[in-house]
Design a protein that fits this description.
The chain is α+β, with helices and mostly antiparallel strands and 440 residues long. It is built from 13 helices and 17 strands. It has 2 domains: 308 residues, 3-Layer(aba) Sandwich (Rossmann fold); 110 residues, DNA Methylase, Chain A, domain 2 (Alpha-Beta Complex), CATH 3.90.120. Helix 1 crosses helix 3, helix 2 crosses helix 13 and helix 5 runs antiparallel to helix 9. Bound molecules: S-adenosylmethionine.
Length: 440
């Protein structure tokens, strides 16, 4: 595929930024930092939002990929947004005093084990495991003290609500309790982007934390739980749900001792979910309930995001020989496997999945392994004009609602990887609108 030069993109961004500087007219700027920035999904969503001359401005960003020497995501980020105020270092090594004060902290952090152990060496009496990135977010807001951001907007896989399997919800309870300790109230919602008309079936948890004395904090303090979850909370306002009723609500108190949560949370009923699709926490009490989207707007389907066939490079097409391998991967199977540790033989089975992918539905979730020609169960395959083919990086960008060619400059499979890691921008944009209207 012909790829535009990364440098010329960068030049255009700089020109645009200079023009913006000359016409600087905003009344209120929500100073934002983007952590675990990847290729900037949060930034793209937030920067689309303008209201009464107010806007979000990313004043600092951080992105560092631990597994590779070449920093593809960070390189793309700089090419699109400029090098200024971008940091390509392990966040764990960044001094909090080097991070500018900000109003909003955003980021999609990995789902890891958030348990803590007490230690006498640590002045706070407890320590999270090294390399666990939640504790880096915690460290920034804790050490910013009086200048800690008023708001956090975070994204994670929905599994976060259920992990670890042996103590469902313990990790999320640790996040809630540590934010409570730092003076925040928290709302959360598992959102499937396609439930609100967006092009991809991608279920992710979004977490919004708001500091004492903000308008959004007071809404949680002053309204009753049904009002908050049905109408007045940030998620209820942005992503309407079918009315929930009191009987379905679970209300519980969280321990404020993180070691106690680590050791005891949900020990009695480890298979029972402590946290459901949506909820909020204030003053250490959490309210949670299952919910269903209530959306009657425009919908979109995979077909709407496909490129013109005449622009599809030939390597994306699948010939009849290869097609058999794809059909095998996508089909039902039962394979004998041996457990490497115990030597125990077992039957691994999986059902068949729709093949090729349906063009009249939103796409399935894009995963990091989406790129490359090797047949796989999880990659998308579409059939257009009688021919089977994989999706191009441009199409993957569209399914995440990124601008076309945002990731140009690295290999096609790296571009697919970056989109597998990213998020559906439209969700952030909608949340940004609500947040800005609440701040103003
Ligand atoms: C789930 S992705 C977020 C993607 C982003 N929201 C986007 O739109 O592209 C998490 C990112 O965190 C980065 N990361 C992992 N460990 C890191 C660390 N120690 N310091 C900084 N960034 C890290 C990864 O390279 C990855 O790009």
């Amino acid at each position: 595929m012909k790829t535009p030069n990364l440098f010329s993109f960068y030049q255009k961004v700089e020109e645009q930024k200079n023009m913006n500087k000359q016409m600087n007219v905003t009344n209120q700027t929500i100073k934002t930092i983007e952590l675990f920035a990847g290729v900037g999904g949060f930034r793209i969503g937030l920067e689309k939002v303008k209201r009464n001359n107010s806007e979000f401005k990313v004043v600092w960003s951080n992105q560092w990929e631990p597994s590779t020497k070449t920093q593809h995501a960070s390189d793309i980020y700089c090419a699109r947004f400029g090098f200024e105020n971008h940091c390509n270092e392990d966040i764990a090594t960044v001094d909090v005093s080097d991070i500018p004060d900000h109003d909003l902290l955003v980021g999609g952090f990995p789902c890891q084990d958030y348990s803590v152990a007490s230690t006498l060496k640590n002045s706070h009496g407890l320590v999270g495991k090294k390399g666990v990135l939640w504790w880096e977010i915690y460290r920034i807001i804790r050490d910013k003290k009086g200048n800690a951001p008023k708001y956090l907007l975070l994204e994670n896989v929905d599994r976060l609500l259920k992990s670890p399997a042996s103590q469902r919800g313990r990790d999320f309870a640790i996040i809630l309790s540590s934010l409570n300790e730092l003076g925040y109230a928290v709302e959360w919602r598992v959102i499937n982007a396609s439930d609100y008309g967006m092009p991809q079936r991608r279920r992710r948890i979004f977490i919004f934390a708001t500091k004492q004395n903000t308008k959004s904090y007071n809404i949680l303090k002053e309204n009753n739980s049904l009002e908050i979850l049905n109408h007045t909370g940030i998620f209820a306002k942005t992503f309407p749900i079918n009315e929930i009723v009191e009987n379905d609500l679970i209300i519980n108190k969280l321990s404020n001792d993180l070691v106690d949560i680590t050791n005891n949370f949900n020990k009695e009923t480890p298979k029972k979910n402590a946290f459901l699709d949506t909820g909020y926490m204030i003053n250490g009490i959490y309210y949670t309930v299952k919910c269903n989207a209530n959306y009657n707007g425009k919908t979109s389907v995979l077909r709407d995001f496909l490129e013109d066939e005449k622009n599809i490079p030939k390597e994306f097409y699948i010939d009849s020989e290869e097609l058999k391998k794809w059909e095998y991967q996508k089909g039902a199977k039962s394979i004998e496997r041996i457990n490497k540790i115990t030597g125990h033989k077992y039957l691994y089975t999986e059902g068949s999945m729709g093949f090729p992918d349906c063009l009249e539905k939103p796409s399935r979730t894009i995963i990091t392994g989406e790129g490359g020609a090797s047949p796989s169960r999880f990659k998308h395959v579409v059939k257009v004009n009688g021919k089977y083919r994989r999706l191009t990086p441009l199409e993957l960008e569209r399914l995440n609602m990124f601008p076309d060619n945002h990731t140009v400059g690295v290999s096609d499979s790296k571009r697919a990887f970056l989109m597998g890691n990213a998020l559906v921008v439209g969700i952030v944009e909608k949340l940004g609108h609500t947040l800005l209207s609440e701040i103003n």
